[in-house]
Each structure stands twice: as structure tokens, then as C-alpha cells.
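FAQ: What does a multi-protein file look like?

Like this. Sequence, then C-alpha cells, then the next protein.
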Amino acid sequence: MKSKNSVQTAKPGTFSSYLALGAVLACFALVPSKLALAQEGAAPSFEFFVPEEGQDIGGIYWLKSYSPEIRTMDGGELPYTPEALAIYEERRVRIEASGEIIEEDQARRLCTPDGVPRVLQSPYPFEIVQTHGQIHFLYEINKIIRLIRMDEPLPDDDYLEIFPWYSGHSVGHWEGDTLVVQTGGFKNYTFLDNLGAPHGYGLRVTERYRKINDGNELEVVVDIHDPGVFTEDWSARFVYDVRPDLRMMDWNCGEVHRDISGVPGVVVPE
């Protein structure tokens, strides 16, 4: 008499064993050999990616000056609706009064991605890596990785609303020497800056990246469209130093990290 916990195996020559063997052989039959791929001219290509002239934007960049508050390009305040402005001001009061992380700030409490454009004002470096068909933005803060697809359109509004991401869904294209990145589909609880600036699900961000100052600086101009939260569209500008002397560092949430006291605008707690 067999125990309830005993495991029965198929005996050699039984129908079950032949069926299992057939399944394994079928899997191998579906995998083409390297020789067959080479004969058919379908061997994978491992060529290094070489950017077009004037479109080499890869490298490590560090913000020239920091501010926890995001403002428009002309230095003005954000054109919030009265309802959104009330939320912003209430969050700012709590942050500035205590100097501590507020409950709603998941990026600082849980080390989730900052969202865009907040991550652009980080006082920590970031790196741009260009490959075939896509560009990666690697931010030191929170180990954030943004994938910019260069060969696909932005998903439609329904998709962006149903499947929001912290950093949104991003696609890009080149306009001369300027990389244009369009992003939509953000989670609603990311901030636009480090003082709690809110946004809605309808947020659409367009970023324009280009080298300036003889290639020694990177300029990023950001256009913000969010009609449910702002009374009009607005733009912000960020400038970074090109830093080939730097190497990206690992990030461990809540632990002491890179010294950023040399970045103008950064106040390091005593």
C-alpha cells in the first residue's frame, strides 16, 4: 500500500515517459543552431553603437546649481490652479517648517523614482548611455533608470492612464543636435520638485537636451503640459557640467552617500 505522500514516477517505456521525452526534443528542435544562423546570414550583430555626428550625448553630468523649488524659465512661480496651489503651499509649509520628509513623499521615504522633472534637479550626478534604438538615463539618486525608446511612438492616452509609471513612458527623437524626449503616464503621487509640487494624471513632459558652451555643458529645457493642474503651459531650464572625471556610485537608501556640499545651493545639515 502506497503512502499518501509518496511520489509516483513513470516507468521506462510507459506513455508518460515517451511524452516527456518528446516535449524536450521538441524544445530543442525550435532552437536554431549557431551554424544554421551563420549559414542563413541571421547571426546576431554585436557592432558598437556609433552616434551620428552632433548627436553624441553620452556621458556623466552634474547639476551646476541646486534649488529645491522649480520655477519657470523667467524665474516666475508655477501657474497653478487655485486648488493645486493650495496643495502645494500646504506641503511647502510642512517641509520648510520641519525640514523633514513628509508622508506623501514616497521618493524620499521609500526610495522610489523621483518622477520628471523632479529628478532633473537632483544634486547627484547622472549618466546618459546611447545604444541601438534606445537611450538610458541612469540617475545616481535612488538608482533610477529611465528608458527612452527611439524607435516607437508614445502610447495613446488610454494606455498611459491605465499603466502609469514613476518615471512615465518616454520616447525620443533627434532634431538636429537636440535630443527631444516626450513622456507621459506618470503615477499621480510623484512630485515636480523637492517642495511637494503636485501634478495630475494628464501630465505630459517634453525635454530638449543639447550640448552648449563648446560641449562643456548640457542644457535641458523642459516643457510642462498639465491642463487639469496648471492654467497654462510653462517651461523650466536646467544646466549641467560635463564630468568625464566622475564615476557613478552605488546608492543605498538612507545611508551616507557622495559629498554634494560643493554643489551651489545645497545646504548640508550639520
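And here is the next protein:
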Amino acid sequence: MKIDNFLMSPDAMKAQLTMSKDKTSSDKFTRELESAVSKKDKQKLMASCQELESVFINKIMESMRATIPKSDVVEKSFATETFESMLDEEYSKNMSKTGSIGLADILYKQLSNKL
């Protein structure tokens, strides 16, 4: 990471933060999946599937937010965008835990055959 990040625009900083967070989430899912398969741990496998579903839902929500036109009525600051990003992340975690989308269940059924 560069020390001179203060020279970056807020949009570039946000893009770099998002890419870093996505890579971390992907690496974490891969490690947990490999661990679950090696230990034949079905609960951990389900948790990993729910986490992947959460990342997928979060990406959909990011895309949905990007389509909302910006207006001058309510200013969008970096803090507001960060808060909305964190809020969307929590929403997606809760949605994946309820099983309302069903992607985690499908992934679990597909991957549990390999246990």
C-alpha cells in the first residue's frame, strides 16, 4: 500500500478498499471451505456457503445502489458512502442467514456430496 494515499481521490480510495475487501472475503471463504472439506465438518461448510451467498448479495446491493441517481438534495460524503456500504454488508449477512435467497442451500447440497 502506498504511503501517499492522501493524494488519491475518494473514488479511487473507495475502489481500492472494495477490491481489498473482496479479495479478503474470497480468501477467507476458500480457507474455510478447504478446512470444512478436510475435516468433513458440515456446519462449517454451511457457514462458508452462507458467507459466499452474503458476498454475492452484497455485490448485487452495491450494483443496485450504483443505479440510484445522485441528487443535490442530500449530499453524499465519503462517510455516508462508507456507512451505506457497511449497512448493505450487514443486510446481506442477515439475508443469507435467513435462507430467503436459497443460494447457500444449493451450494451446500452441491459441495456436501464431496464430503
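Q: Is there any per-entry metadata?
A: Some entries carry free-text notes. For the entry above: Residues 76-115 form one domain.
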